[in-house]
Amino acid sequence: MADVPKYYWDACIWIELITQSDSDRVERCRHVVDLAKRGEAELWTSAFTLAEVWKKKCDSSAVGIQEEQDRAFEDFIEDESIKKINVDVDVGNLARRLLRRHPGLGKPQDAIHVASCLLENIDELHTFDGSDLLKLDGVLPRRDKIKLKICPPPSPPEPAMFSDED
């Protein structure tokens, strides 16, 4: 079997999929989930994501998934097609070093996601986080020295149009 792309999801991707607040983003998420379920891609995330999908703003208003959405999120994460990366000493140390070397990275949780990708030679880190993560696209070398691609999830292909002659 040929190698399939390894995609990693930042917490904001899971939030979009579960809350379904933006139809274009949700379609992108579903497309990647479908690829993973068909074995055409691997879908990875950090175990840390389990906590990060519940976020608060400075004013304490919740912006992540709501309590009644927990089961739907956990069902996705527990699916055998989703590979989980634990936050271990290697991930923590690399995340700290990345924060020092790349001040624009900003948040420790984003550094954990990036470090996980670099250590596991993930092909693409999917995110909608344009404030810091997308700016690092093609900048950081993975363990195998290839630069990590950081981008939104791909759009699904357009449906094929068939003529009456087909």
What does this molecule look like?
It is a single chain. This protein is an alpha/beta fold. It has one domain (6-54, 83-151): 5'-nuclease (Rossmann fold), CATH 3.40.50.1010. Helices cover 38% and strands 11% of the residues. The chain has helices spanning 11-19, 23-37, 49-52, 70-78, 89-101, 108-120; strands at 6-9, 42-46, 82-85, 124-126, 149-151. A five-stranded parallel sheet has the order 3-2-1-4-5. Helix 1 (11-19) packs across helix 2 (23-37) and helix 5 crosses helix 6. It starts with 5 loop residues before the first strand and ends in a 15-residue tail after the last strand.
Short synopsis of the structure:
The protein is α/β, with parallel strands linked by helices and about 170 residues long. It has 6 helices and 5 strands; from the N terminus they run βααβααβααββ.
Q: Considering DSSP H and I runs of 4 or more, what fraction of the residues is helical? A: 25-40%
- CATH topology, which one? Rossmann fold
User: SS-based structural class?
Assistant: alpha/beta
What is the CATH architecture descriptor?
3-Layer(aba) Sandwich
